[in-house]
TrEMBL record, chain A:
Entries under Gene3D superfamilies matching the protein: 1.20.1270.370, 3.40.50.11890, 3.40.50.11900
InterPro entries found in the cross-reference section: FldB/FldC_alpha/beta, YjiM-like
Keywords: Coiled coil
Cofactor(s) for this UniProt protein: [4Fe-4S] cluster
Single GO MF annotation: iron-sulfur cluster binding
Top-level taxonomic group: Bacteria
Lineage of producing organism: Bacteria, Bacillati, Bacillota, Tissierellia, Tissierellales
UniProt key word Aminoacyl-tRNA synthetase: no
Listed Pfam families: HGD-D
Stated name of the protein: 2-hydroxyacyl-CoA dehydratase
TrEMBL record, chain B:
UniProt cross-references to InterPro entries, sorted A to Z: Se/S_carrier-like
Domain Putative Se/S carrier protein-like, residue spans: 6-72
Taxonomic classification: Bacteria, Bacillati, Bacillota, Tissierellia, Tissierellales
Name the record gives this protein: DUF3343 domain-containing protein
Superkingdom assignment: Bacteria
Length: 430, 83
């Protein structure tokens, strides 16, 4: 076994506490993921990534930094990776998806706030996440009040840059976000010492678009009647997309897609016929938050799509590649990113259209609206989504839950009732 | 007894080298996080069914450049974390 302890020590990690995490993760992943039947062989790569989650990738980031290059940590799908890559930097997603980090987060944050923020801050201040420890700078944004204020605490621990994300989608807001991307570009140039040229940005816009196209290809396989991959596995791939090496990720997901497309031709399904198809919508699910998918897929449902940051928000729509000068490229980036229908915008009717469209595209039978506790924007938006879905005759339930394992029984009961109702509707329709 | 055999490696590249060989020979395997009971270091191992352990051992013998740091067969256990 590779011994990464020296590397972790060099990153100023709390080795003893980190070891507590290492004691749990392999077993947790094994029980949730490796007990699934008929998993595609291509998932071996993702088993590899998870097994080496605090090892090989951290070593790669460390080597990158030894060569004088920089690593940027971010928390949101609005931070444009294209700009970081164009300056020869690496961007990694840093959201915390484990209960493990919450108590440390609560040392400096109020308890009644979203677990994603508490876990993210806790991961940094406890020194137990090697990704945080490998970042030269964190890039925050103003998507919600909780995050906005948390950056002020985090900047005592690590250099921060905060992007001001507009809260409306008027023309002037798109113009403002273009300016924000420009300011971010200048910051990245300052930190890396590398200029972002129109040529380099053109290349990385293409590269990140390719990553989006690859994920679109993956998600397209989930539209098939016979599902070639579980929702849980698809979620894992989207989560890994946030920090894996972009080129390697594209290659491996394409290899997997070849296998999945063969499975569709051969009508191989990982679920039994008639399993209710679920569109999951709501707040992001950061590694290792696999809770909702696991509960749904062990209660008789199958997740066919995620309308979430760890889902379609991350890869739908491409950046226009046909621009030769920086100004037009920045405008194209702003256009694409401001097209994300995040609940931080007011109004946000585009998200309702997305949910209804995805429900039809993925041939779903019902929608589960999933929200982390204290996420006001997503929790409040449920009312409008629910009204619109009911008008369309689409079954929907809202489940609010954090990372803890205690409420699983209660959620299972609600899910089973929801699936039973869906099955009854299907029978009545015949 | 329901069990799995794990092959452990001194580095991930040895694991990937064996994976390549197993793929060529069409042998069923799964890349897996190394169970904590087998090693305290994080990283990959290759999980196979105990029945094919001999076949895999002979592949390892034939390919001396692939280094391994142990082969262990342990009982398959899983628990429901959400109960």
């Amino acid at each position: 076994m590779a011994d990464y302890r020296e590397l972790w020590e060099s990153l100023d990690m709390d080795l003893e506490k980190h070891d507590e995490l290492c004691q749990v993760l392999p077993e947790f992943y094994g029980d949730i993921y490796m007990t699934q039947e008929k998993r595609p062989e291509g998932m071996n790569y993702f088993n590899f990534v998870i097994s080496e989650i605090h090892g090989l990738r951290i070593k790669e980031l460390n080597e990158h930094r030894k060569n004088g290059k920089k690593v940027f940590g971010s928390f949101c799908v609005f931070v444009p990776d294209e700009v970081i890559l164009a300056a020869d930097g690496i961007g990694v997603g840093l959201c915390g998806g484990s209960e493990f980090w919450v108590p440390d987060g609560e040392k400096v944050l109020p308890r009644n706030m979203c677990p994603l923020i508490k876990a993210s801050v806790g991961a940094k201040i406890s020194g137990t996440c090697p990704y945080f420890q490998s970042a030269d700078m964190l890039v925050g944004e103003t998507t919600c009040d909780g995050k906005k204020k948390a950056w002020e605490i985090l900047e005592d621990y690590i250099p921060m840059h905060v992007m001001d994300l507009p809260q409306m989608k008027r023309e002037k807001d798109k113009e403002n976000f273009k300016d924000e991307i420009k300011i971010f570009k200048e910051k990245v140039e300052e930190v890396t010492g590398n200029k972002v040229s129109a040529e380099s940005l053109k290349e990385t816009i293409k590269l990140v678009n390719n990553k989006r196209k690859t994920l679109q290809r993956l998600y397209n396989t989930r539209k098939a009647e016979n599902l070639p991959i579980s929702g849980k596995d698809a979620l894992l791939i989207t989560q890994v997309a946030f920090y894996d090496d972009t080129n390697r990720f594209i290659d491996k997901v394409n290899e997997l897609c070849d296998e999945l497309e063969n499975r569709i031709e051969e009508k191989v399904s990982v679920f039994k016929e008639g399993t209710p198809r679920i569109l999951l919508t709501g707040t992001p699910m950061a590694i290792p938050n696999w809770k909702m998918h696991h509960l749904i897929e062990t209660s008789g449902g199958a997740v066919v799509c995620e309308e979430a940051c760890t889902g379609t928000k991350y890869f739908e729509r491409l950046v226009d590649e046909d621009n030769e000068d920086l100004d037009s490229q920045l405008r194209a980036l702003s256009e694409r990113y401001m097209g994300i229908n995040c609940a931080c915008f007011s109004p946000n009717d585009g998200r309702i259209d997305d949910i209804i469209r995805l429900y039809k595209e993925y041939n779903a039978d019902g929608v589960i609206y999933n929200s982390l506790p204290f996420c006001h924007t997503y929790a409040i938006e449920y009312k409008k989504v629910k009204d619109a879905l009911e008008k369309e005759g689409i079954p929907v339930i809202m489940i609010e839950t954090d990372y803890s394992l205690q409420d699983a029984g209660q959620i299972n009961t609600r899910l089973e009732a929801f699936f039973e109702m869906i099955n009854m509707n299907k029978e009545l329709a015949i | 007894m329901n069990s799995n055999t794990y092959i452990l490696f001194p580095s991930h590249s040895d694991g990937l080298a064996l994976e390549k060989k197993l793929k060529e020979e069409s042998i069923k395997y799964t890349i897996s996080p190394t169970p904590r009971s087998l090693s305290e270091c994080c990283g990959i191992s290759i999980m196979i069914s105990p029945e094919i352990c001999h076949t895999v051992e002979s592949i390892i013998k034939e390919n001396r450049d692939i280094r391994i740091s142990g082969i262990h067969t342990i009982e398959r256990k899983s628990r429901d974390w959400f109960k």
